[in-house]
UniProtKB/TrEMBL annotation:
CC terms in the record's Gene Ontology section: cytosol; nucleus
Protein name per the record: Glycerol-3-phosphate dehydrogenase [NAD(+)]
UniProt source species: Collybiopsis luxurians FD-317 M1
Top-rank taxon: Eukaryota
NCBIfam families named in the record: glycerol3P_DH
Length: 374
């Protein structure tokens, strides 16, 4: 497989000797705004792509796509799963967006993945461990299942750092890809044109996930760089916090552009230093890199809450409750994880922007020191 998979590569005929053409069943683990937006695309594609031998590895999709929902009571309406399934709308996290009727909300995780061969993991990363514990139990996953992570963040243990696809592969024993790009959930759900990048471990994974998510308004570009796609999705949220601090202090485009340039350099340098097999082209040539950074730093929730953090003096926990309906800011958690890792490695001085974002967020550092020594 070439380092960067083209659409021509995806459609290149393969030998049919001993190949089977199973029906692929999609399951979405997570139902926040981003999870619901991805579930919507997958369900639409599952309904439309009923039989296709073009990829030489599968014959179509099961019509029903299940989405795991953490059950809760919606005041005056009933249980969230019942509301989603009766109204075909996720009023809590993706209001005013119609969902396909073949997308079914289910509160039981094991039931959601039952028989699923393509599992999309898109939960807040602090909830990933219990999810993986449940999925790793004997008999839960279907034989031959594959996963993809759309989770933004990293796992740090002392002076070691792991991407979520790596952890998923290790825990579940199945191949795991990574999805990331310039993708604001509401804009994706409203079918505004955009691109996304999928880092894949093999050409078969590229073909399958391309079929799950690619559409005329959501263009998918698979590349062979799982770590790079995963890390860019995590680190850009830390830089987006810095962009929000700039907005909160009332500075203009010059300042913000400088912070984004410095942030992109730190993102690429960090990835190459600690994940040397990744490609620098992921950051410069693909949606998962510079495009995602720009989008998140102008329109994402991390930027929005970081601006409010400076202007209001409220904690990030308060802002999550007030502005995000309880959803978690991945940038804040990632900033802490990255700082602890760099501290353990004795490398904080090598990444001054990442370090300052952490200290402003957690140690009360004056935001105006953001620009010192950059």
């Amino acid at each position: 497989m070439a380092p960067y998979v083209t659409e021509f590569d995806l459609y290149e005929p393969q030998s049919t000797n001993d190949l089977q053409y199973p029906i692929q069943k999609i399951a979405i683990v997570g139902s926040g705004s981003w999870g619901t937006a991805l579930a919507r695309i997958a369900a639409l594609n599952a309904a439309e792509k009923k039989a296709s031998f073009i990829f030489q590895i599968f014959s179509g999709f099961d019509h029903e796509v299940r989405m795991w929902v953490r059950e809760r009571e919606i005041p005056g309406q009933g249980l969230l799963t019942e509301v989603i399934n009766s109204t075909h709308e996720n009023h809590r996290y993706l209001p005013d967006v119609s969902l396909p009727h073949n997308l079914v909300a289910v509160p039981d995780l094991v039931e959601v993945v039952k028989g699923a061969t393509l599992i999309v993991l898109v939960v807040p990363h602090q909830f990933l461990t219990p999810v993986l514990d449940e999925l790793s139990k004997p008999g839960v996953l279907a034989p031959g299942a594959r996963a993809i992570s759309a989770i933004k963040g990293v796992e740090v243990a002392g002076d070691e750092i792991y991407t979520f696809p790596w952890l998923i592969e290790k825990k579940l024993g199945i191949p795991c890809s990574a999805l990331g790009g310039a993708n604001i959930a509401m804009e994706v759900a409203q079918s505004e044109f955009c691109e996304t990048t999928i880092g894949v471990p093999s050409s078969d994974d590229a073909a399958l996930w391309h079929a799950v998510f690619d559409s005329p308004m959501f263009r998918v570009h698979p590349i062979e760089d799982v770590a790079g796609v995963s890390l860019s999705g995590a680190l850009k949220n830390v830089v987006a916090l810095a962009a929000g601090f700039v907005d909160g202090m009332g500075y203009g485009g010059n300042t913000k552009a400088a912070i984004l340039r410095i942030g992109l350099l730190e993102m690429a340098a960090f990835t190459k230093e600690f994940f040397p097999s990744s490609s620098s082209l992921t950051f410069s040539h693909h949606s998962a890199g510079v495009a995602d950074l720009i989008t998140t730093s102008f329109g994402g929730r991390n930027r929005k809450c970081a601006e409010a953090f400076i202007k209001s003096g409220k904690s990030f926990a308060q802002l999550e409750h007030e502005l995000l309906k309880g959803q978690k800011l991945q940038g804040v958690v990632t900033a802490e994880e990255i700082y602890k890792f760099l501290q353990a490695r004795g490398r904080t001085e090598g990444y001054p922007l990442f370090t300052k974002v952490y200290k402003i967020s957690f140690e009360g550092m004056d935001p105006k020191t953001l620009f010192d020594d950059l």
